[in-house]
Amino acid sequence: MESLTCPFGTFKLQRLPLRKNETLRAWDAADEYLLTYIHEQFGQALPQKPLIINDSFGALGVALAASQPVQWNNSWISYISQYHNAELNGIDSKQIDWLPSTNRPDIAPSAVFMKLPHNTCLLEEQLLVLRELVPEGTTLIAADMAKHIHTSTLELFEQCFGPTKTSLAKKKARLIFSTVDKALPAVNFNYPRTIDHNGMKLVNHAGVFSRQKLDIGTRFFLEHLPEALQDAHIIDLGCGNGALGVHIAMKNPQAQLTFVDESYMSVQSAQESWTANNLQGEAEFRANDCLTDFPKDSADIIVCNPPFHQGNTVGDHIAWRMLQQSHEVLRKGGELRIVGNRHLGYHAKLKRLFGNCQTVASNNKFVVLSAIKK
Ligand SMILES: C[S@@+](CC[C@H](N)C(=O)[O-])C[C@H]1O[C@@H](n2cnc3c(N)ncnc32)[C@H](O)[C@@H]1O
C-alpha cells in the first residue's frame, strides 16, 4: 500500500473502489504542494475547522484531521474514501465532518483549502457560495496540477471571488491564492437550470453530467428504452439528471424507480426532475458507488449510460464495475440495457458476463445493447 509523506506525517492512502493491481495513487503532487504550504504557513498551529473542498480520496482530510476539518464535496466515492483512509491511519472519523455539495456550509470557516473540481460550473458555484460566507480579507488556497489551471480558471476566480495570483509550479502542480472581495459585481449564475426535452423537464445542478443540454448518447438511448414495463423495479444507474428513469416513469406510471449516482448533485437533480414532471409513482434516490450493497436478484431492469472516467482519470473500470454489479443485482430474466460509443467494446464485455448480448439499435456513433440474466 502506498503512503503519502508530508510535513504532517506519513499516511497510508488507498483509492476507492479498491482494484487489484492498482497503479494510481490516492493523491497527487497538488495535494503534496498544498499540504507543504499549509505547514509552512501555520506549522502545528493550524486553524481549527478549516473547510476542505473537493478532496478526492481524503489525502487532505486525513493529513489535516487534527484540525477537525469540514469536508465539502460532490462525490460519494470521496466520502467513503475519506472514512476508509481515516480508519487505515487510526484516525477517529468523528474528527472529520462531511458536508455534501447539496448542502451549504453555514458557518464562516477559519481557512479554506480547495482542490479544483473537474467542472467549471461547480467551481463557479463554490466560489460564489464562499464569497458570501467568508469574512472580508479571507484568502482561499486552491491547488491542482498545472495542466488543469487555465487563464479562464484564474479569470473565474477573479470574477467570482476576488484578486487572484498563482505560485510557481512544483512537480507540475500549482497553488492559487484568491482573496475575497465582497464588493465584486453580482455574477449571473443560472444553476440549477431546467431544460426541456420533448416535454420532459430535466433539472440540472452545477455538478451534473451534460448540464447544459442533453448528451447525444442519452438522446439516442431515450428512443430505445425498454417499454411496457408495468410495475417492474427499474434502476437508473449513474442517473445524472434522471433523464432515463424519468422518461421510463412517464411512460410506465406503475413502475418502481431507483435512481443511483455517486454525485450528490446528480441525485438531487434526478429527484427535482421527478418532481418537475409531477410523477406520482414509487421512487428512491440514492448516492452510492454503483450498486454496492444493493440486494442480489432484486431488479427487473437496469438502464445505464456508463461513465468513461473517474474524476480526471479516463478509463472503463467504473463502467465495468457497473456491468458486473448489474449482473448480480438483476433477477433471473432481468435485463441490462446500456448505451455507449461504438468503439468502447461493451458488446464483448456483456457477452462475457451475461453469456448473451443483443444490439437494440445503432447509429454511426452509438450502440444500444441489451443483455438478459439467465
Ligand atoms: C455518462 S453519465 C450518464 C448520466 C445520465 N444517465 C445521462 O444519460 O445523461 C455517467 C454518470 O455516472 C455517474 N457515476 C460515475 N461514477 C459512478 C459510480 N461509481 N457510481 C454511480 N454513479 C457513477 C456520473 O456521476 C454520471 O452522472
UniProtKB/TrEMBL annotation:
Pfam families to which the protein is assigned, alphabetical: MTS (PF05175), RLMG_N (PF26049)
GO molecular function: 23S rRNA (guanine(1835)-N(2))-methyltransferase activity; nucleic acid binding
UniProt entry tagged with the keyword Magnesium: no
Major site of localization recorded for this protein: cytoplasm
Record's subcellular location: Cytoplasm
Domain RlmG N-terminal intervals: 1-181
GO cellular component: cytoplasm
Protein name stated in the entry: Ribosomal RNA large subunit methyltransferase G
Similarity remark: Belongs to the methyltransferase superfamily. RlmG family.
SUPFAM superfamilies: S-adenosyl-L-methionine-dependent methyltransferases
Superkingdom assignment: Bacteria
Role description: Specifically methylates the guanine in position 1835 (m2G1835) of 23S rRNA.
Domain Methyltransferase small: 200-369
Reactions catalysed according to its record: guanosine(1835) in 23S rRNA + S-adenosyl-L-methionine = N(2)-methylguanosine(1835) in 23S rRNA + S-adenosyl-L-homocysteine + H(+)
Keyword Mitochondrion annotated: no
UniProt keyword list: Cytoplasm, Methyltransferase, rRNA processing, S-adenosyl-L-methionine, Transferase
EC numbers for this chain: 2.1.1.174
PANTHER family: RIBOSOMAL RNA LARGE SUBUNIT METHYLTRANSFERASE G, RIBOSOMAL RNA SMALL SUBUNIT METHYLTRANSFERASE C
